[in-house]
């Protein structure tokens, strides 16, 4: 027997306690945190009246291209009208790739995801990197040389057959009252399946007193599934292939009709006290809970079952339709943004359903070999199984993603025989209504505990994927990424709102989707992103580490190589006054050495080595041990000011010595007044006695003045005959120089004649080069036209496939 009890901690936190019997101590039971329900609970507040702040009467707008072709562009509510003439609209869009090129980030390994996904190393890492490098967390779009793309709600619907409409996905543990209670009409708040799943969860946890312990997926599967295993893991892949292998080791997709429960299954139901009429729903709910934790929304607890999914799994098993596409896309955007915003993306381990990203890449960029025969299930299964991913090297993968030369822009759009006007009046087909929701901009939501994750959704930025004419998208009015429960629920209700009477034209497939954009968009795009990533592929493959130079003074106990010990000239000492006695302090400690700081990757505990630049003058750190951080000291005002004054005077004195030593002897007397001014300034620091320095400098300048007088007298005594001798020597030197100049002029003329001859030959070669380049360009154009024809035929095939599926 199992008992459910509500418990409140002294701080007011609400918990559901699962007990084996009513006398069991609470701390021995399974304790689960309870949050306020938004659906399916006794304490659910009635939904307030909704004011649609994102309403548009027309979500599409006709544009004039030519008389024969009609085209529409897509409008948005959370973006301001284009202001691309202003500087704010021309700031480059930030991506992970731009951060890597500018030295603010680096991969430092391969991406890791919290998901049971396996692939052959070398086949997929480069494509993952290339995709994440081009992801912009500000816009939730993929930036390519040809413009923006993104994963849309309709992509999830088309690839995985996930619903956009339905009830909110409210993943919370219910209270005991909600779990067992009923409303005034006798209807249960939550299906009975939930309590049986919680009972099974409690049994699997056993008597473990650690409330943080989890129930793993394999435990859950073994507990519920008593049938023989049909599928096994595929053998390891050993070689790179240019085509997909015949055997993918995929499940066949055949689901046999259930006949009757086995003896082991009946024993399980009897152990949980499940009634006969609830066995199928409980069994299905147990599977759906596993599916939600592994496929729909993987959590941070790797391969663990989350009891918070039991409520929604039970509702789905009872036939309740749930809006899964919205929460999945929110999770994908959030996970990609964590990677794109990190300075060490390979060290982030985000939890989101990355397999949908793989399916999207396979559909738009053809990164996988498809399965065309014997297919059952959603479209994304075409790209699953062993040997599906194509091989790319670092450069090929980045060209494939960043350049986007052969992207299937509209591979998942609805294709009709002619443009279709949709009116949201409640009479449209379900497929068209889901498509309409997927093309209008808003904010996506995902509940996590007592808050909502919010991600902006802007299909007008990648409207070519829906067949619309692309123009400058404008700028976001405000960036919202989180909200409390009430506000998050409002965002969700606004997005799935139906019967709004809004209208939109669904266009046909453009002739050339890639070029289906305005000149203003091309100009704007060239300024905010353009071919930045494509131009910096070499830097993305082998980024240069950022070097931050940090100066530090040598410690007194730091050893210096005797042979390379730099010579220091003797200098006067500054005397520091300290209460009763004067303490001499060295005026200069010598030049500061520089050491290169290590970046964040080398600061981690897993680093293998430190890299430093060679110290100047041959000085080296003793040994290879890591430098120790300085000890923490207590801030003392007087001492702090004193040490900084002393450091300032030492620096001033050192610079003054350099200035004097660099001044020619004949001009030393000209700086005497400046030196006197500096000494006067140094006297203002009363705790420091600079009298020895002042006396030394006075003596020095007395000798300078004596030197100037002696030099003046010597020049006056210079005889006339000496002047004549100097003049004669100068004239002789002039004749020699003139002769050499004449000889040099002859050589220059000879070289110029030869150069003229060479230039004529260059002109002839340039003419030949021009003709060869023209021939090469013509041949390249022929090759490009042939590839474009192949691309068009492939798009026609995809379009026909979509049309056939929609008509069926």
Automatic annotation (TrEMBL):
Pfam families: PMD. Residues 265-525 form the Aminotransferase-like plant mobile domain. Keywords: Coiled coil. The keyword Coiled coil applies. It comes from the Eukaryota. Residues 720-803 form a coiled coil. Residues 585-620 are annotated as: Disordered. This is Aminotransferase-like plant mobile domain-containing protein. It comes from Sesamum latifolium. The lineage of its organism: Eukaryota, Viridiplantae, Streptophyta, Embryophyta, Tracheophyta.
